Amino acid sequence: MSGNSIGVLFRVTTWGESHGPATGAVIDGCPPLLAIAAADIQAELDRRRPGLIPSASPRREADRVEILSGLFAGKTTGTPISLLIRNADATADAYDGLRDLYRPGHGDITYQAKYGIRDHRGGGRASGRETAARVAAGAVARRVIGRAGIVVKAWTRELGGVVAQPGSPEAAAASPLRCPDPGAEQEMLARLTEARAAGDTLGGIVEIRVQGCPPGLGEPVFGKIDADLAGALMGIGTVKGVEIGAGFAAARMQGSACNDPICPGGFTSNNAGGVLAGITTGAEIVLRVACKPIPSIARPQETVDAQGRPAVVTIGGRHDASVIPRIVPVCEAMVAIVLADHLLRQRAITD
Amino acid sequence: MSGNSIGVLFRVTTWGESHGPATGAVIDGCPPLLAIAAADIQAELDRRRPGLIPSASPRREADRVEILSGLFAGKTTGTPISLLIRNADATADAYDGLRDLYRPGHGDITYQAKYGIRDHRGGGRASGRETAARVAAGAVARRVIGRAGIVVKAWTRELGGVVAQPGSPEAAAASPLRCPDPGAEQEMLARLTEARAAGDTLGGIVEIRVQGCPPGLGEPVFGKIDADLAGALMGIGTVKGVEIGAGFAAARMQGSACNDPICPGGFTSNNAGGVLAGITTGAEIVLRVACKPIPSIARPQETVDAQGRPAVVTIGGRHDASVIPRIVPVCEAMVAIVLADHLLRQRAITD
Amino acid sequence: MSGNSIGVLFRVTTWGESHGPATGAVIDGCPPLLAIAAADIQAELDRRRPGLIPSASPRREADRVEILSGLFAGKTTGTPISLLIRNADATADAYDGLRDLYRPGHGDITYQAKYGIRDHRGGGRASGRETAARVAAGAVARRVIGRAGIVVKAWTRELGGVVAQPGSPEAAAASPLRCPDPGAEQEMLARLTEARAAGDTLGGIVEIRVQGCPPGLGEPVFGKIDADLAGALMGIGTVKGVEIGAGFAAARMQGSACNDPICPGGFTSNNAGGVLAGITTGAEIVLRVACKPIPSIARPQETVDAQGRPAVVTIGGRHDASVIPRIVPVCEAMVAIVLADHLLRQRAITD
Amino acid sequence: MSGNSIGVLFRVTTWGESHGPATGAVIDGCPPLLAIAAADIQAELDRRRPGLIPSASPRREADRVEILSGLFAGKTTGTPISLLIRNADATADAYDGLRDLYRPGHGDITYQAKYGIRDHRGGGRASGRETAARVAAGAVARRVIGRAGIVVKAWTRELGGVVAQPGSPEAAAASPLRCPDPGAEQEMLARLTEARAAGDTLGGIVEIRVQGCPPGLGEPVFGKIDADLAGALMGIGTVKGVEIGAGFAAARMQGSACNDPICPGGFTSNNAGGVLAGITTGAEIVLRVACKPIPSIARPQETVDAQGRPAVVTIGGRHDASVIPRIVPVCEAMVAIVLADHLLRQRAITD
User: Fold this and answer.
1) What is the CATH number of the domain that holds B107?
2) Which structural domain, as residue segments, surrounds residue A74?
3) pTM tops 0.95
4) Measuring CA to CA, which residue among B245, C257, C223 is closest to residue A105?
5) A68, A117, A118: residue with CB nearest D22
6) β-bridge mates for residue D82, sequence order
7) Complex prediction ipTM
8) Which residues of chain D does A20 touch, with a Cβ-Cβ cutoff of 8 Å?
C-alpha cells in the first residue's frame, strides 16, 4: 500500500538506492510449479544493460541477479521470490558536488521536500537504476503470463523526432536501438551522436504490443486494465504520456470511424487497442509511451542550492544520450507485471 | 482491492448499474470535522447533468444525492460517508433489442466474456452513469484538499478537432462546453450540430489544472502521483490517452529545453507539469486527457450476436453527441480523489 | 484499506450509524452467476433480530434489506452488491443525556479521542447495530462458500457461567439461545432473568464450526487463515478472546498429546482446529470466542463528562441482558466472509 | 495483499525459507529521519537466538543482519528498508528423510495441499526461522513507536503448566526464560528438563504489555486495533489463542464488574485491556497468547507418506523443548509492527 509495491495478487515490491549496497525485488503471489532459473532473469537484465549504443553510459553495472527464496528444485513454490542485485560499481564520489544542489528535471528537490532528507548519490531511490529490479521481477511475470500464452514486446517508434516504420519483433530485437526500421535507426543514431556532442539528450516514443491475451482481464471501474497499464507505465521515471489504441488521435475521430466493428472472428480494426470498458477484448493490446529526454545533460544549468540561493549545476560523469533503448525492457516488464496480476485475479472468479 | 475502489487512505468505492435501482459511493477515510452538506455534493452533480448543450441526452436524470452516513451535525465524523443516488428515470425498455447484440465500442462483449453474464440495460455497470457516483465522491475529496488550499479546474481544450485557446477558469465555468474561448466554442457547437445530424459523435481533449498543491505529494516508485493520476484518468471510460506537463511533446524535445530551470521562486517553466520523480514540486499540475467519441451512434453498425453470428445493431434512444462537456467534472473528481488520498498519506509520515 | 473494509478479493465494506438514516454494506468481488434473492439475506438478518428471548431489547428494528446493485435476473453479475437497511425506528431522543457523558465499556470516549467529534446517539458507528450490515454481507459470503460445500455453524457454549454440552446444529438452531443443551438453556435463561432484574448483564462463549472446508485455504505468513479468522472475530465489538482447536488448553499440553496423528483418512484428533501453519487441513475448523457482558447496564456508573469532570451516568432505555444469542449469526457471518475471500484467493493460484 | 505482507502504511514483507540462501524483510513506509543502526536490529535478533536455555536448539544461527537500503548517513530516508539475514548454517541433510513424510503438527501436509510442491527442508517457509525477519522488522517498528513514547514488553506468564507471578520488565529481561518470578522460573526449567528427557515438548502463555500508547489508535470496524493485534499474534506459528484485557474471563463476568469505571485520571480498572470499540484508550494494552508445544518431538509419530499410506516419522536433529522464551521477542515485534502502522494511520487524519 505504501509506494514501492504494485499488484494485488501478483505483487512486486522493489527496494534499493542507486549507490547503496544493492537493489532488489520481492515477488509475492507467484503461482507454484513454474520453472524459473536465474539465467532467465539474467537474460532480461542483460537487455537493459548499458553499452547497447555508442553513446551509452559507460558505467559497468554487473547486474548479476541472485535468487534468495521462493524456488525449490528449480520451480516456484508459491512463496515470495526475493531477488538481489548488488551494486557492484557504486562509487559515489562523482556526486559529492550534488549534495547541496538540485538538478533540474530530477527528483532531488522533491525527495528533499517530501522527506526532509535524501540520498543524493546518483539520484538515490529515484535513479533509473531502480528499474533493474522491475526488469528482474518482470522476468518472473513474463513466465506467469507466458504459461497462458501472453507475449509482450516493445519497440522504438520514435527517437529525437525520427519516426520509425513498424517491423517484426525479431528486427526490433536485433537492433541496438530496438528499432525495426533500419533507415530510421541510422538516422536516430546520427541524432544521438549530435546530441551527445552538444552535451544534450533526446526523447522518444516506445510502443508496447501484447499478443495472446485472453478476453476478460481487467476490473470494472477502478482496476480497469487500461488504467492499471497507464499507471504502471506513467510510473516509469521518464514517461510523460501514455496512450492506448488510437490514443490521442481518437480525440479527433468521429464515432463511426473510431468504433471497431465486430465480426465473427473478432474486430475489423483496433482503435480500442484491445480494451473495451477496461476489460481485454482478446485483440492485440497496443500502448505507446512518451519518454522525455534524460535530464542529466552535460551543459551547465540554472538551479538553486539547499538554502534556496541561485546556483549553477554541472553534472559530471558520462550519461546516456537517451533513455531509449534501455527503457524498452522496462516498459515490457511493467506491462507483464500488470497482466500477471490481472490474470490471477480473473482466475479467482472463474470456478 | 477488487475493481470498484480507489485510494489507500481516502478510499472511494462506487457501485450501481445504469438501470438498476440506484448508484452510489462509499467514502472511507475522510478526515473528521469537515463541514459538508448535501447541497455541496448536489452542486457538483448538477455540473454533470445532461442538457448543458442542445445536442445532449434528453434523459432527465434526477440525480438527487442522499447522504446516508458519516456526518453528524453537518460535519464529517471520520466514519464512512455513504452517498445514494436513485435512478429515477430508468426505463430499460429501449434496451430490449440489445440483450443479444454487442454494441461496437462498448463493454457489452467484454463484460460477457469476463463474467458470463451482464446487465445489458444501458451498459449496466459500464455505463457513463457510474461517473455520477465519482462526481459525488469527488465533491467530498474537493473539501479535503480544499482545506489544504488545493483547487482543481478542468476545461475543454479541443472538441471535434477545434482547438481552443486557454482562458480563465471563470470563462470556462460560464461556458456550456466548459470552453473559455468563445470563438472556438461557437465552432465546436457547430461541429456538434453537424455530427448529430449525421448520426455521429465527436471526441476531444480536456485539460486539468491543479493549483495550490504543496510539494511532497506522491510515493517513490509505484504510487507516484503522476502514475496514480494517469491511472485514475485512464479509468474514465472515454479516455484513451493521458499526458502530464509537456506530455507527448516532450518526446521531441532536447534535455536542455525540457528541463525546467530552478530559481529561488520555483521553476521558470513547467514542462514537468508539477511533478518530478513522481512527487509534486509545488508548481501547477497540468494534465490532458484524450476522449474518444461516444460509441453510441445513431447509424447502423456491423457486429455479432450472442451466438457469434454477424448482425447489424442500431442503437435507439437519443445520446449525447460528445462526452464533452459532461466529462469535465468527472476528470476533476478523479484528480481530487487521488490528491486527497496522497495528501493524507503525506501527513502520515510527517510528525 | 481504511477501517471499514475487510477482504482482498471478496471485499466487504460496511457503513452507517446506529441512529443515522440507514446502514449498509457493499460487497465487491462476489463471483458472477450465483443465485441470490433478497429473501436469502433477509433470513439471515431475521436470525439476528431482537426479541429472541424475553429479556431482549424491545427496539423493533425492521431491518428490511434492499439490494441496490450487482444482481441481474436473480443472479450476481460480478459487480458490487450494494445492500441497504433503513433505520426504521431510530428515535434518538433517549440519548440526549449522553451527549456529554462517556459510558463505561463503550467507545464514546475513544471515538471522541480519535476524531474530535462523535455521533453520540446510540453509539453511532460503534453500535452493535453495525453488525446488521455484516450479517447481510455474510449471507452473500455463505452462498460463495456454500457452492464449494463449506458450511458455517455457531452455537452458544457458555452463558453467565453455565456451560452447555455440544449438540446437533439443528438443536442449536431451534433454541432461542442457540444452545443445543436444553438443561443448560433453562439455567442460562434463569441467569438472564436474574441479571436483568439486577440491572446487570452477562457474558458468554460462542463456538463456531466450519464443515466441508477444502485443504489449502490460507496464506503462508501474514494472511494465515487462523490469523484472519481471529482478527475478524476479535473485530466484533463484544469479543475479548479468540481461540482455535485446543486453544488456551494447548498451552498446558505436551507435544506428544497436542500433535494430531495423521492417518490415511485424515487426522485422529483435532487439537489443531483444522489449521496447520495457517492453512486449512480439510478437517473441521473449530473456533471459540469470549464475549464480554454488554456494557449498557441499568445501574448508575462512575464516569467523567466531556470536560473531564467526575459524573454519574445512568443509561436509559431497555437493553439486551446478553449479546448472546444475537451475536451468533454475526460470528458465522465473519467466518463466512473470511473463508469466501480465501477461497477466491486460492483459486487464483490454481490453474 | 498476498500472504507475506502486513500493514497499510508501515508495511512489512518477509521472505525466505528455513534452508534457502537467506531470509529477510522489506519495510515500506518507515518515516524518514529516524536514527537506526544495524546494531539496533542485531540486538533484537540476539534476544531471539537459540541457546538461551540448556534445552535449546544447538543450531547456531549466525543471524547477522545486513541493511541493504533505506538509510543514508545513519538515518531512514522514507524509502524501503531491506534487511538481509543469510542462512549461515543451513545443512539440509537432516531433512532428507522427510521429503515424503508429513510431520504431525507441522505445515508439511498443508503446504503440499495448497501449492502441490513444498520445500521440505526444515519446514521451508513455515519454519520458525521466518520469525527472525519479523523480529528484525520489529526492531524498526519499535523505533517508530518509540519516538511517540510507546514501549512494548512481553514476558512468560506460564510454561508447562507453571504459572508465574508478574514482575518488573527488568526481571523478565534478565531471566533466560523471560520470567520475572524466580521461583516459577526454577520450576519451569525443571519441567523443560523432564520434557526433554521424555522426548517431548511444552506449551505456555506469553503476556504482552504496551505502555505509553496514546488514545485514538485503531479503526472503527474492520481495522480495530484489537482485531489487528489478535490477527498479528495468531499469525505466529505457535499461537492457538489470543485474549485482550480480561479476555476469556470476561465471559464469566457481569457488566457491572467488567465495565472499567472512568475517572478524571483515566480508568480505575483495566478489563478492557486498553481498547474500547477497537480504539486505544490510553491505558496500558494487555494481551495474552497461548503457545502450543513445539510439534517437533523426538518420539516416533503416526503419519502418512506422500502417497497417503500409513507411516511412522521420527524427527531427527535436536529441537527446542519449548517455543518459550524465543517467541517472546517475536510477540513484541508483531505488536510493535501493528502499532507503528496504526500510529501512522492516525496521523493521516489529524491536521
Assistant:
1) 3.60.150.10
2) 5-348
3) yes
4) B245
5) A68
6) D26
7) 0.97
8) 68-69
